[in-house]
Structures are given as C-alpha cells and as structure tokens.
Amino acid sequence: MTSKTFDRRSFLKKSALAGTAATGATLAAPAVLAQSPIVMKMQTSWPASDIWDEFAKDYAQRVDEMSGGRLKIDVLPAGAVVAAFQVLDAVNDGVIDAAHSVPVYWYGKNKAASLFGTGPVFGGSATTMLAWFYEGGGAELYRELTQDIMGLDVIGYLGFPMFAQPFGWFKGEVSTPADLQGFKYRTVGLAADLMAKLGMSVAQLPGGEIVPAMERGVIDAFEFNNPTSDRRFGAQDVATNYYLSSYHQASESFEFLFSRTFVEDLDPDLQAILKYGVEAASTANTAKAMRQYSTDLKELQEGGVTVRRTSKEILDAQLAAWDQLIPELEQDEFMKRCLDSQREWVEKVAYYELMNAPDYALAYDHYFPGKLSL
C-alpha cells in the first residue's frame, strides 16, 4: 500500500513538471502545478464515539489547514483496518500510514514501551514527563527503542499531557489496600504489574471492550482514562463508585505514530507540519479536555455516581508497589537507562515545579468552600 502511494505521488509530481515545460507559454503556473492532495491514512485506537477520536481529528484539521490542503489525514476509528492494540504493526508494515494511540498499547511487544507515559511516578506530572520527552532525552530513547532495538520503520512524537487517570470504577466502596484483594481489574501496561502487586488480577483490554467484560463478569472493576470517555462508553451503567487520583497512570500522553518511509518521502515543509502539528493539537486537546472532562464529571455525579478521591492509604500502597516493581524493571539495561533519565529529570524539574506552585486547592476552597470534600 505504501509503495503504491509513493509511486502515485511521484507520478503526479513528474506529470506536473512535464506539464509546466509543455504548456508554460499558455497556462499560469499555479494552474499547471495544481495536483491532488496527499492523503495519509491514520487509524486511532479509539472508537468513533470516544472524545479521543475528536482529538485525532483536531490534529488532522490543523495539518490540513497548515499545509494549505496539500496533505490531508483520513482519520479511521479502532477496528477500521486493524484492532486497537495492533496499530504499531500496521504502521510498520505499511498497512496504514499513521496511528493515533499510546505507547502502552504495544507493551506486549516490549515492556519498555510503558515507560513512555505509563511508568513509575517519581513526582512529575504528565506535563513534566512530556517535557522529559522533548527536552530531557526521552525522544532519543524512544527512537532507540523503536528503531534500533525493535527494528521498526516508524517515527513517533508524543502530545497532549493527559490529566492523571482516575483509579477507576468499583461497584462498592474501597478505602484501604485490603479492600482491593481479589478484584478482577482492567488496566494496561506496567499498571497491570502494579495492580497485581496490590492483590488484584488484571485483564488488559481496549476501552471498547470494558463494559461487555463487566457485564460478563470477566472483570469487576476497571479504569480507562477520563470522565468523558468513561461516560460515553457507559461506565456508569455497570459501576457507580468513581475514584479520582492515582499513581498507576499519572504521566501519559498520546502517541502520534508515522511510517518513516512515508514521512521521508514528503517535502520538508510537510514533514515539519506533521511534527509541529502535534504541538498545536496538544494545546487544543488540553483546552477541550478541560472543558469536556469537567462537564461530564458533573453530569456523572448528577446521574447518581459517587465521586471520591482515592484514599492516602491506597496511594501509599501504590508507591510501595512501584518500589517493588522498579528493581525488577531495572534488570533490563535499556529500561534502567530510561528510569535513570526520568529520575534525574524529575528530581531537577519537579523540584522547581513543586516548590514554586502555590496551593491551588487552598485558593479554590477559599472561593468555592466545601466543594473539594468528595
């Protein structure tokens, strides 16, 4: 598929240039050089109903407008070509040109994938870790993993630092680590290893399979990501206790995956638009998420869902579980280098962030008293 796309595009370019030589005396140059836009097939890992599908289309819109219509992205939902967890293979094999996903979805191929968004939380937010990707050496480590270690023909960028993911949905109240014993819980990546150390058995499922799995009893508790996605796929229909705040996935961003061969065949300005369009979409996604996530959280509460913050006891237990898991991960040389790099970055950068940040909760409670008593 990819090679045919290249051949067609090369033919169009050559035809346009030939036309210029043959008819330049009678036709204006813009008319001669006009050609069909290059169309990039991008599949997401999200159902068409998910707000994240909208986020992918926000990116496509920006690429279209910045390229003056020369490059268009055809955004396809999960399952349109391949399953949600298979987009990396599909991009590498040229079945699709690009994907909108998260690295943790190819955790099954290499556990180190989870470190690019779903690893230990040393004290930095998703914004801290997205900065590590671009300014702290993370991008080169990602390139080493995908291209050198795994031998993949892909280029990837991260964008949209996600708000910390809720601990999730439970049928009853959970307030201590002992309450978690024996739960069949859905999560993904290293969070699965973490929850196993807390006494839960874990199933790694795409978002679209969560509610059916709850209904069949395959799982009895779960997390996905945010109030809007959760509400849209019907989380509130199978559980009514929603716990916000957790260390299991507190630093994740979207992954924008591209076929390296496809990208390198593009003109340099289009390559730049694909790259820096990620930054533009990241800002747009953040603004939309703030508006919509908070709106849907309120509607979940008004619909009968009990919203609480995860207890300090459970958060402490999560950190203790990370402490057990990290030495196991560091037996892998590459993963140790990633974790060392992340610790060094967070120690330096988050120190400034945390020392400098005022107590926003104090100010919020001052102007909206009592609302934070979840």
From TrEMBL:
<feature type="binding site">
    <location>
        <position position="223"/>
    </location>
    <ligand>
        <name>substrate</name>
    </ligand>
</feature>
<dbReference type="GO" id="GO:0055085">
    <property type="term" value="P:transmembrane transport"/>
</dbReference>
<feature type="signal peptide">
    <location>
        <begin position="1"/>
        <end position="34"/>
    </location>
</feature>
<dbReference type="InterPro" id="IPR038404">
    <property type="entry name" value="TRAP_DctP_sf"/>
</dbReference>
<dbReference type="InterPro" id="IPR019546">
    <property type="entry name" value="TAT_signal_bac_arc"/>
</dbReference>
<dbReference type="InterPro" id="IPR018389">
    <property type="entry name" value="DctP_fam"/>
</dbReference>
<dbReference type="GO" id="GO:0046872">
    <property type="term" value="F:metal ion binding"/>
</dbReference>
<feature type="binding site">
    <location>
        <position position="186"/>
    </location>
    <ligand>
        <name>substrate</name>
    </ligand>
</feature>
<dbReference type="InterPro" id="IPR006311">
    <property type="entry name" value="TAT_signal"/>
</dbReference>
<dbReference type="GO" id="GO:0042597">
    <property type="term" value="C:periplasmic space"/>
</dbReference>
<keyword id="KW-0574">Periplasm</keyword>
<feature type="binding site">
    <location>
        <position position="224"/>
    </location>
    <ligand>
        <name>Na(+)</name>
    </ligand>
</feature>
<dbReference type="GO" id="GO:0031317">
    <property type="term" value="C:tripartite ATP-independent periplasmic transporter complex"/>
</dbReference>
<feature type="binding site">
    <location>
        <position position="249"/>
    </location>
    <ligand>
        <name>substrate</name>
    </ligand>
</feature>
<dbReference type="InterPro" id="IPR026289">
    <property type="entry name" value="SBP_TakP-like"/>
</dbReference>
<dbReference type="Pfam" id="PF03480">
    <property type="entry name" value="DctP"/>
</dbReference>
<keyword id="KW-0479">Metal-binding</keyword>
<protein>
    <submittedName>
        <fullName>C4-dicarboxylate ABC transporter</fullName>
    </submittedName>
</protein>
<keyword id="KW-0732">Signal</keyword>
<feature type="binding site">
    <location>
        <position position="165"/>
    </location>
    <ligand>
        <name>substrate</name>
    </ligand>
</feature>
